[in-house]
Amino acid sequence: MLELKNLSKRYGEVRALDGASLSVAPGHMLGFLGPNGAGKTTAMRSVFGLVQLDAGEVTWEGMPIGPEQRLRFGYMPEQRGLYPRMKVGEQLIYFAELHGMSRSDAAASTSRWLATLGLSERSDDRLEQLSHGNQQRVQLAAALVHDPDLLILDEPFSGLDPVAVETLADSLAAEAANGKAVVFSSHQLDLVEDMCEDVVIINQGRNVMEGNVARLKESSPHRHLEIDVSGGDGAWLPEVAGVVAKEIDGSAVRLLVQKEIDLEGVLSAARAVGPIRHFSFEAPSLSEMFLRAVTQ
Amino acid sequence: MKGFRPIWMVARRELRERLKSRTYRITTVILLLVVLGGIVIPQMVGDGDGTTYDLGLVGETSSELLDTLQVLATTSGVRVDTQEFGDLAGAETALETGDVDAVLVGGTEYVTKEPGGTSFFVTGGTGLSALVGGAVQAIRLQEVAASAGVSVDEIAGLLTQNPLVARSLDPLDPNRETNTVVSFAGLILLYVGILSYGAWTLNGVIEEKTNRVVEVLMSALRPHQLMAGKVIGIGLLGIAQLLLIVATAVTAALAVDLVDIPDVSGGLIVSLLLWFVLGFSFFSVAYAAVGALVSRMEEAQSVATPLTMVGVAGYLAAFAVLENPDGVVAKITTFLPPTAPFVVPIRQAQNAITGWESILSVTIMLAATYGLIRLAGRVYSGAILSLGARVKLREAWRSAEL
Description:
The structure holds two protein chains of two kinds. By secondary structure, chain A is of the alpha/beta class. Chain A contains ten helices and 14 strands. Chain B is mainly alpha-helical. A four-stranded mixed β-sheet of chain B has the order 2-1-3-4, with helices on both faces.
């Protein structure tokens, strides 16, 4: 279990972290969200002792984190970087060994990860000979190659094409399923919604929303209501309490409503006009909740 | 994983990657060619010190005379090649064309191109006439002595004995000359080594910041481990390159008979190696620390210059000490870490340093290097992750993770 509690860090006048907290248990994947400059990178760096915190606690299994524990962690920093002239395979073996693996284990793990990421035949190429996307895969492999218990990935999906995103997302899901704790930051909120059970959203160094994605959505006071009635033009819509916003597009009516709206009343009014072609009543997306949370 | 393993892995990566790099191979080959060329080419072009004379022989020449001539030539450090001619005319033609330098006829007549012939009044010297004349005289002296009942050995004994016992008010270490030469060569190697391999360390540190690989490294290594590994790896590579060059130079010099194996005290060699390691470590650690302060190669020069100046100062101090190994400058610079590696071997070679001075100097050096490693490690921690503008030394010190 990784726990970050009440982290605080100032850079001169700028408060990078102002009480942010998060925790993630083995077998879970946490989406760590926030606008640019919210303090995500600073918080992630603090796990590796790369930031001298002004206050707060960073613990793994209840203990403060030291160099020995960090060898069991994998890190993909926001600032990507490996040795451009070093061969891909040798590079990964080196990083695995630095984390305490024996040479033979390191070599075995390296070829396993290169195979998983579809890079087996690039093992003897220098890193600089690979495309940007493939370099990114190697960077991910460098975070995974020593079989860490905890993965901290800062924007692992940025700059990847949809195919690479898919490969990467699958690998991370498999890691979490294998009992690893995974934390990653991302601006691709739809992806986070698909991948993570839990999220933490921070803004200006503070937590503004956190918890299980499904429950967060459920607890939202709003719903999207969409009804498409054959032959309707929207005029059928009765005056009901709780409509926050309304949009009429031909025969379709899209509403943002309070969760407690009189759904039966609306439905029967629609049925009176003609057959219903489409009906949906959904909680807002993570992306909407994110926007609301960080603009409040 | 404790202690030395991560340091060694960093060092091993430096060794492997640099050994594989084309730059390292090419510079090594070029250095070797320069050193070899500098030694071998002068030997092939001119006669250099090893002067060779060609002597033409006509008629009977006794083998005793020829043997004596060769002995005299060897002791004078020259070579005499002889060439027999069937008749005088052929020999004189060879003399005219310069194929031979002189012709000895029947062991009694000495023919040269010199106007008016050669004067044999001047004895000694290493000219061909002096050698031939000396050989003939020696043979005649032996003949006369033998007929007077004095044995050849007695005569030879008299001629080779020191006529007087020599004593000086300033007794000389028999190895002092060669020691000075060797320590001087060591001084130049140390200077070149510190500056060039120090630059490797500096560039290596900046490169990792530019590549941004340093953040991944820092998640697994402590700053002092990364720094120590880098310094050790580059140091080993540098020492290997230097030893290769020195070994090649010595082998080449021996092969072309430029020098004999120098008669150097073993203590001096040990001291040179020790001070090489001490000096190299001290300066490399400092280069690593200043390298951490910048993020771009273009800024490397500006941070390295002060350090390079310190190295140059140490080198120049050693020259002052060479002139006056017992002076005040010598005494002070012996105990200053940046100058001691250059100065102490020079003083040692001249027997101008006492035992306690050596011990104290090494102790100070070790303490200073340890202190510098701690200090540089802290600067490194504080500055290594900043990728923007140049970090001020004071900021790096303050923001260091302790």
